[in-house]
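Crash report, auto-generated. Payload:
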Amino acid sequence: MTEHDEARPRAGWPLYEVFVRGKRGLNHVHVGSLHAADDQMALRHARDVYTRRNEGVSIWVVRSAAIVASSPDEKDSFFEPSGDKVYRHPTFYDIPDDVPHM
Amino acid sequence: MTDPTIDLHDVDSEHDSAYAGLQVNDSHWAFGTSFEDPLAGVDTTVPDDVDAAVLGRYAMALGDDALVLSQRISEWCSRAPDLEDDIALANVALDLLGQARLLLARAAKADPSLAPVLPEGSPVPPEDALAYFRDAHELLNVRLVEAADEDFADAVVRILLFSVWRLEVWQRLVASRDAVLAAVAAKGVKELTYHRDYAARWFVTLALGTTESRGRLEAALLRAWPLWPELWAAHPIDVAASRQGVGVDPSTVRESAEEVLDRVLATAEVARPEVPGLAAVAGRTGRDGLHTEALSRMLAEMQSVARAHPEGAW
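Recovered output after restart:
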């Protein structure tokens, strides 16, 4: 992770990931990334870049360097084992008509 | 909007209840949602006991301030220090253009004699006639907004001074007896609050950044400072509008604005410049149509296409 080494000065601003919760959204959704000098500036840049068309009511920003991601190399061991466990899906229930959003 | 128990325009409820959004059928918007007409439900007739000429000139002056600054900030498109600030500045310019459009339309409605006469059958609406078919001496904007920016710091300082001033005035303008001006102010206060926040943060960032950024910020402040006193003059246009109950005399709200500005300067550890204000010429300032050379150059570029096609539809 030398690219995000905190101690070294950078020519540009650090990268942030932006999450926006839309008016009809239940949760924050990743919408993109941007550069900013600090956290507060990142929040304002996110407002300016990603909510110009009335998309959002709440914004999260986080330094890209703070995100730990799974590796494509781990795809088989991470995700393949759940592929055949049909009994983990709650598909054997009758859902009443008046239960919404299922 | 099917559930009357949820106020969908209440930002707090939208923020706190993730379910509120599910009540809106806006699936036709691929990304983003609907727009609101800032004048929806507003009575646009000029009140009987208001002097329409006074209201017209006042709305035109406020509209010209926004129009000219919007054009100047637009000049940063593709030239800002980075993509994010390019978009931020474009947003500010668009907010101001929206204010200008509503205000110039109001001016022309209150006093149709203000709008330049165009060829018979021209589809150009009155607010566009005011924006694109007047010469510099007919514009009533304050001189702060018309200079060209030499540096990003100029944009920061100008937006800061302008929004501190305008926000202070508009917070009173929401009580205007003219329902349209009150509605425009109510919408504008939120926009100006953001512009002030954006500019103030950049002001502090540049001031406390490097020697280079601080030097350029202080130079920009020195350039803009002579135009600050003009913003607070009790000009006859503003005073007359204030007497009619439709406008605000800025000289009455200067003190609280200076306090806001002092807080920004103190945070940035920048001293108030000690340079005199730009003098009036034969008693005339921006509000009298007296402008610097920069304005006519800017207008030449801004208006050339519209003037070449006075009967064009856009």
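Post-recovery validation: The beta strands of chain A are 15-22, 29-35, 56-63.
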